Amino acid sequence: MTREHIIQKTLKMLQQLPEDKVREVADFADFILKKHDEYCLQKGIEKLSSKSKAFDFLHEEEDLYTVEDLKEKYK
Asked: What is the mean pLDDT for each group of 10 consecutive residues in the chain (75 residues)?
């Protein structure tokens, strides 16, 4: 089924429902839309922050200690 066909089928079903059920469907659709918007916003923020140089210092940390700094090695 295409997107347009699904929309048309849903509209036909909504026309057969009483008003309180149509409101319920509208509330659910609003919930789904907000959830999708939040998801898109979160992904956009993740994309921006991953391209940002603000946290590069976390990836470029030099080693404080090496194996040569050990006084005793455990096997």
From this structure: 96 97 98 98 91 78 82 78
